[in-house]
Specification:
Layout lengths: L15 H13 L12 E5 L2 E4 L4 E4 L2 H4 L8 H11 L13 H13 L6 E6 L2 H16 L3 E5 L10 H4 L17 E4 L19 H14 L5 E6 L15 H12 L2 E5 L23 E4 L10 E6 L18 H16 L2 H22 L3 E7 L2 E6 L10 H13 L2 E2 L1 E3 L3 E4 L7 H21 L1
Parallel strand pairs: 3-13, 5-6, 5-7, 7-8, 8-9
Antiparallel strand pairs: 1-2, 2-3, 4-10, 9-10, 11-12, 12-15, 14-15
Helix pairs in contact: 3-9, 4-9, 10-12, 11-12
The structure holds pyridoxal-5'-phosphate.
């Protein structure tokens, strides 16, 4: 792909070729897919994506936190080519391969906690979550699960029961896993208990102990508690610093398995390898996917070793641990480490958040700006006092930015999530901010 310093819009997107393609796609694709923008990708490199009409976009979404090391990193391309020249598939139910064991060893090393661990490899985030649920149920012989309102954990029948970001994902699905209880998350900008932090004394955690565990679910009937360290699909909601440690303390006190879903927060996105590390938290089970293999299908549940010492046949799959995918994942981990993308996420992400906060002082529409590393949430409101969600304005802003060559991602009722590839430079961040500012001003003028 040609080198660019700014987006290049040669025809207002979607251009004629993209429109034709989208028509074909519409005729055959499941209508359940939502699609963020009419972008038909043709080439990609680093932070740039070129569509089939020749427009080049600056990507502030990373395919929802997948291309953390940048699109089509040469090391990953090389690893895929090298491995596919030798061996493409061995069913992990039946036999062994070297890339698979190497990846599992690396995941044991990089994930939080120095204790002995075991790994189950799958193909997606939802599979990682399903594995975690099964591990918890198998060990405790219980099936009740505590999850959080606004949490996103996947869309298969088990993980869907945990997901509560929108009713559209849940409506009409029956016969899902039973026994999931949802409690409010520490969404302090819109506290569900109408309290103020820190005066609340973390009432949302106390509520779990005082109400849920005393009146609704006996703790010894629980299989696990599952939580995103920073809620993703709800709008990059960062909890207060004492929240995760308080949840862990509660789990330890009542002997509840603590599962951290780091499918979106993992692999340096937040400025640390895993978001749990911001708060010194070591989960019993951690679920991973998205950025793990830089876009190839890969997911993993990593747990304390003793939790994954279950009966042969208790859980398996066909394509998990595919050697080409594992080599891509190993190359991804190398790049994250060698290029110190945790540090770049913190540095450039910190700069982005500072600039967005400055913008929020001048623009009434920005109600809240929050984040860690390159996981930044911007929440739009019609009125700073009532905090009425400015959904129409958020959507219009995404559209205006897209027309100018910046890809943004929506979340929650009226938020944006900025999740650029972690290789983003300060200069590229400035280009994105300039377009974001222009789009914001246009929306303020028009709506
Ligand atoms: C935190 C979290 N868990 C699980 C999932 C499900 O992952 P997948 O779409 O790969 O099934 C997602 C996807 O966005 C996620 O953000």
């Amino acid at each position: 792909m040609e080198k660019v310093k700014r987006p290049k819009i040669v025809v207002t997107p979607p251009g004629p070729k993209a429109r034709k393609f989208i028509e074909r796609d519409r005729a055959v694709t499941s209508t359940s897919l939502t699609r963020t923008a009419p972008l038909v990708g043709a080439e990609e490199e680093g932070v740039w994506v070129k569509d089939i009409d020749g427009n080049v976009f600056l990507d502030f979404s990373s395919g929802i936190a997948v291309t953390n090391i940048g699109h089509r990193h040469p090391k990953v391309v090389e690893a895929i080519k090298r491995q596919s020249d030798k061996l493409i598939f061995v069913n992990s139910c039946d036999f062994y391969t070297l890339p698979q064991v190497e990846l599992m060893e690396r995941l044991c090393e990089v994930t939080p906690g120095k204790f002995k661990k075991r790994v189950f490899l799958g193909n997606s985030g939802t599979e990682a979550v399903e594995a975690a649920l099964k591990i918890a149920q198998w060990n405790t012989r219980n099936y009740y699960v505590l999850a959080f309102i606004g949490g996103f954990h996947g869309r298969t029948m088990g993980s869907l029961q945990l997901t509560t970001t929108s009713v559209a994902a849940r409506r009409h699905f029956k016969g899902m896993m039973q026994g999931v209880f949802h409690v409010p998350y520490a969404y302090c900008y819109r506290c569900p208990f109408k309290q103020e932090y820190p005066e609340c004394g973390l009432w949302c955690v106390e509520y779990i102990e005082e109400t849920m565990l005393k009146k609704v679910i006996p703790p010894d009937d629980l299989a696990c508690l599952i939580v995103e360290p920073i809620q993703g699909a709800e709008g990059y909601i960062v909890p207060p610093d004492d929240y995760l440690p308080a949840l862990v303390k509660l789990c330890k006190k009542h002997n509840i398995i603590f599962v951290a879903d780091e499918v979106q927060t993992g692999f340096c996105r937040t400025g640390k390898w895993f978001a749990c590390e911001h708060w010194g938290v070591e989960p019993d089970i951690i679920t991973l996917s998205k950025a793990l293999a830089a876009g190839l299908p890969c997911g993993a549940a990593v747990s304390r070793a003793e939790l994954m010492e279950w009966d042969p046949g208790a859980h398996e799959n066909t394509l998990g641990g595919n050697p080409v995918v594992c080599e891509a994942a190993l190359a991804t981990l190398d790049v994250l480490e060698k290029e110190r993308l945790d540090q770049n996420a913190e540095r450039v992400g910190g700069y982005l958040l500072k600039r967005i906060k400055e913008l929020s002082e001048k623009h009434e529409l920005i109600g809240d700006a929050r984040g860690k590393g390159m996981m930044i949430g911007i929440e739009f409101v019609e009125d700073q006092r009532t905090k009425k969600p400015a959904t129409k304005q958020r959507n219009a802003l995404m559209n205006e930015a897209f027309k100018r060559g910046l890809v943004l991602l929506g979340a929650g009722a009226s938020s944006l999530r900025l999740a650029p590839p972690l290789v983003l430079t300060k200069e590229q961040a400035d280009v994105g901010l300039e377009i974001f500012g222009e789009a914001l001003e246009k929306v303020e003028r028009d709506i």
